[in-house]
Amino acid sequence: MKLDKLVGERFKERPSECAVDSHAFMVRGGYMKNMANGIFSQYPPLKRITTKIENIIRKEMDAIDGQEVLFPVALPASLWEESGRYESVGSELLRFEDRNKSPMVLGMTHEEAAVHLVREYGNSYTKYPFMIYQIQTKFRDEARPRAGMIRVREFTMKDAYSFHTSMEDLEEYYDKCYKAYQRIFARAGIPEVVVVASDSGMMGGSISHEYMLLADAGEDSIVICDECDYSANMEAAKNIIENEAGPSAEDLKKVETGDNHTIEEVCEFLGYPVERACKAVVYQKNEDDSYVVLFTRGDMEANETKITNVVGAIHPAVIEDDSVLVAGCIGPYGISDKVTVLYDSSLKGIENLCCGANEADKHYTGLNIPRDLGEVEFGDYSKAVEGGICPKCGKHSLGIARGIEVGNIFQLGTKYTKSMGMEYLDAEGKAHNPIMGCYGIGVGRLAASVCEVKHDDYGPIWPITIAPWEVHLCCMRADDEECKAFADDLYDKLQKDGLEVIYDDRNVRAGAMFSDADLLGVPVRVVVSPRNMKNACIELSTRDKSVQEQVPLDEAFDTIKKLVAKLYADIEDGVKEYE
Description:
Blueprint: H1 21-28, E1 32-36, E2 39-42, H2 44-63, E3 66-68, E4 74-76, H3 77-83, H4 85-88, E5 95-97, E6 103-106, H5 111-118, E7 130-139, E8 154-164, H6 167-187, E9 194-197, E10 207-214, E11 220-225, E12 231-233, E13 253-256, H7 263-270, E14 278-285, E15 291-297, H8 304-311, E16 314-316, E17 340-344, E18 353-356, E19 362-367, H9 369-373, E20 378-379, E21 398-413, H10 415-419, E22 424-425, E23 431-432, E24 435-442, H11 443-453, E25 471-475, H12 481-496, E26 501-504, H13 510-520, E27 524-528, H14 530-534, E28 537-542, E29 548-552, H15 556-575
Parallel strand pairs: 3-7, 15-17, 17-20, 25-26, 25-27
Antiparallel strand pairs: 1-2, 4-6, 5-6, 7-8, 8-24, 9-10, 10-21, 11-12, 11-21, 13-19, 14-15, 14-16, 18-19, 21-24, 22-23, 27-28, 28-29
């Protein structure tokens, strides 16, 4: 490929709308162009990268007996009504009507389509197990798209669906996918991806894992133990609290607290540390707007996912003047029986608490939960904290990091096959619902995530397995006959040998040429210049600067090939760990 024919422009200035480095470099480098909020067109360099990622994924999915299929982007709403998700999923699902006024949706995930495709085929136990996968465009109407390709509305995704006749069989196959995903990310040049336990969310199922690439640009908080291999998404991480013995119980006493309503204001006024405050966090159920109140220790944060898993979908509460709750003064003693009340385990063992009195401008001191409230059921409803107790090794060793989710796997169970009436007959002729697994990877997000963690101040540093080209050949003086002739000949030889080469023979300044090369991030760079020709050599380097050498002209072709092969071999050495 000649660089002067490459569609797309590269420029120096960082676009003001780009908050993260990967977004800035991929706009500046001519990888993509914004079409609408969270929707991008791909120029050739990014298309070449995503195609390579797709091929890596295909290789690994085929290796574990996956069969590639293709589902429609536009789906009838009736399919989602069968599963019950047409109403339960929010505005992220784009709903519309076709010309015949039939309700339709744009697929944001394809569990329903997968069941629809195989429910007649999978009518006998002899057909199991099997796995189907697709690489397809999806649309999720994100409220806040951000970070370029990391969180978008339209995206390309590999999603796979496996079908089984027993949980044991699903678990065995789940383990195969677990390892296949590790090989995919290692082969894409990011073996450092962390696997964390996660919450299944709207997908359903009981066991799920996310593959997280630790990066400051990540939206997810990852809980990691520094002493063992425990890791979990913040949504799923257990929060274990061991309260030390504090002041003994006092009589429950109502106190006028005036305009002090926040937890900090009330604690300061009453002379209580926030660790001995019973804080109220209020939500409303989506289904009927009834109130849900979580009581937790004053320094803890509510984990909405944990709460949702118990009471169903919720949203932040609006407390009106005539409601059963008194804003700023909510407490467990004397609270209305019309409210769903949850108690976080962070309150367990504290004998002397302050809390709201459910009256305007009043709070209690001396609350003792067993004495004043009787037997209550404590649960884990708060977020894990830095330095918290690891659920696995029991040490105060938890740390919090930011991560980008680059893949996820779920054990779905019979959530979809049961609701959509998919059955098979066993050897005795009895009917059962197949058990499903689900496995997803966002292709564009993976490309952007690699760029986010592999770049310098000048542009991306692409791993050779997904780089848009393998070799970037720079002819520094196209008007120099000897220089141009050697560069042209080297370009032809490398291409005929099967190497992917981007060739820059433009008559531009060296600074502009190298700036474009940095933005394209090709792993191997070859510079042919009049000065080098006088010394009978070429300059050979890698984009990450780990290799920088002068190579004799008659050895240039073979040395370039060997360097390319070595870069591939280095990647494969990292993959072997997961075989």
